[in-house]
Predict the 3D structure of the following.
Amino acid sequence: MAENSVTSTARLLREEDEDDVEGCGDGMRRRDRPKEPWKGEIVKSIVYAGLDAIVTCFSLISSISAGHLTSGDVLVLGFANLVADGISMGCGDYVSATTEQDVAAEERAVTEWDVTNRSQPEQMELLRKYQRLGMSAEDAETVVNIFSKYKDMLVDEKMMAQKGMTPPDKEDKPWKNGLVTFVSFIVFGSAPLLSFIILIPFTDSDTIKFIGACVLSVLALVLLGIAKAKIAGQKYALSAFVTVLYGATAAAAAYALGWTLRNIAGLDE
């Protein structure tokens, strides 16, 4: 009986491999398969820190420009705010990742103790969990009995099934995520400020420099919107449009606030 089961499994694996090979040559079948999103926390840190940086820095520039301050004021305040926010974002990412790892490690230790010292109740709890998900009592008992032979796998399964937590990954390095977030924030956040540097030899008009900052910000937002779509498996055009709309809304609000403070509150006096 066991040999027949092994033979059947091996045959299914061979058939699956043959289907994959045939699928690679079949254009229609390849087109039907959804595209895989980008994976990895580093990629996500780059994209989302970059989006936050562009919107934050461009909004600051908008409010300063509405107040009719000079290009020097824009550069000083812009870069000072950029570095401060970048450090804050990087440290926040590091602390968040470290805390998440510590919590997962503590939860795993508790779950491991429960599995070791309360094996029967823990297995019954997992059994009821599978049955609530729609698994038959016989299949659920088979699965739990298999997991019970492998303590580490049973601990990990209980963490995911009952606590919704993935086991801590020893390969994760929180300092790397924090560094990537900081660098991404600085690099992409500098895009709106580049206009005030690049155009220095060509014009003294702060209005033209501000328009240049708008163009660079839109281009950077479009690129990051496309990258965000790649991560989430969304449509590129829609993601880019929503990202630009998000940045434009924040910048318009900041510009309106700066104009209001200057013209109504009398801060120009």
